[in-house]
Amino acid sequence: MNAGRHTEPVDVHLILRRDGKEGPEVLLSRRAGSVYAAGLWHLVSGHLNGPEEDVVGALIREAEEEAGVSIDPADVRFAVAVHHRSPAGKSRTGMFFEVRTWQGTPGVREPAVCDAMGWFPFNALPEPMVAYCRAGLDAYRSGRLMAVHFQEPGDPIAYTSGVDRCRPFPAVGTGGPDTRALFELHTSEAAAPLHHEPGFMGGPALTRMTATAAQLTVPGMRPSSEAVSPSTTLEQYAETVPKATMWGCLYFTDEDDRPLQVHSVYSPAYPWQLVGGTTDPGEHPWQTAVRECEEEIGITPTGPPRLLATVYSPPGGGWPCSTIGCVFEGGRLTAEQIRGISLDAQEHDEVRVLSMAGWKELMPPGDFARLTAVEEARRTGVAAYIDSWEWGNS
User: Fold this and answer.
1) Cα dist from 366 to 92, 130, 227, 282, 363, whole Å
2) Domain Nudix hydrolase: where (predicted)?
């Protein structure tokens, strides 16, 4: 029996996350100088200064010192805890936190211990990377809240797929290894208790719905005996739920706030359209809107994305799936920008800027109603929700 009680360091790791062109990205820094794991990529991280500092305070301090970004404590979200042991046999506990909102532009602030910093897609993380850091990111990406990462003597400090010591563990109430993590949602403090009964887990800011085969009986779903069996895979379950396509578009006006639309050569029923289109695999709606804008009119929106309206449509008009669309603020274009628009002749043959009264004369009633709702959302700053495409445009 040891004479003294075991103690070990606690460190904090920042998962600073943004939406990139290829999907979600994380900020990483490359260690340098005489520090441990020099030359390897790692999250912005550090140790607590002492008993007077809590883990959130340490995270905010390290973010400012290492990357030059300011973080509000209200924007910090717990992601995962990792109990780690290095190849030298020293153990520690790491607390990983996700942050999606911050102030400042990330950059190297401590060149003596960090010689590079950049954004990387979660599905294309750089090498070499500290194995401890990679264990936390892998657990985070899998939706697990805790992992053990005990390396053995002789293991490399850098992550190697053939020597992966990460053992993620499920959270209480999530049904163990057979849990199906179906989706995540953001909810308010007041609404959070309403989600617990059907199986949502987590705090009010971010709750995860998880369900085993026996738990898939949330309101609005078929009874679990009809939905899945214990051997049902996530892919098999996905085949039983309704399908939907996504689209994203941009609402542009001229400097007099008159809407800009393009004329379709392939859709006589919906002749005048906002700039945009259907999402490609792996895209987010904003990414779709940017890509379509570049392809259709040769303009690249810079963002940040501001949602004006969400449009839902059930199957109809010959289209077998539901559709969900996002209309984003495109901004005001100058007369020179409008004159410089180059259309793809296979999709559109004309661009026009008209007053709302002018558009009313050219558009089917349902289309014009949506345009009116989008214009109202832009004017008031309150996003619109439109729950029918009205295929017949009656």
Assistant:
1) 61, 55, 37, 30, 8
2) 5-146, 242-376
Q: Is the dihedral of CA 45, 49, 53, 57 positive or negative?
A: negative
pTM check: above 0.85: no
Q: 160-214 pLDDT, tens per residue?
A: 888 889 998 876 654 444 443 333 444 444 444 444 444 444 443 444 444 443 3
| Angstrom distance (rounded) from CA 274 to CA 305 | 16
CB 20 within 8 A of CB 26: no
Q: Are strands 307-313 and 384-386 parallel, antiparallel or unpaired?
A: parallel
User: Is residue 63 within 8 Å of residue 102, measured between CB atoms?
Assistant: yes
Provide the pairing of β-strand 44-47 with 10-20. antiparallel
What pLDDT digit, counting tens, does each position of 210-267 carry?
444 334 443 444 444 444 455 556 777 777 777 888 999 999 999 999 999 999 988 8
Domains of the chain, start order: 10-169 (3.90.79.10), 176-238 (no CATH), 244-386 (3.90.79.10)
b vs e for 345-362, b when ≥16 Cβ sit within 10 Å of the residue's Cβ?
eebbeebebbeeeebeee
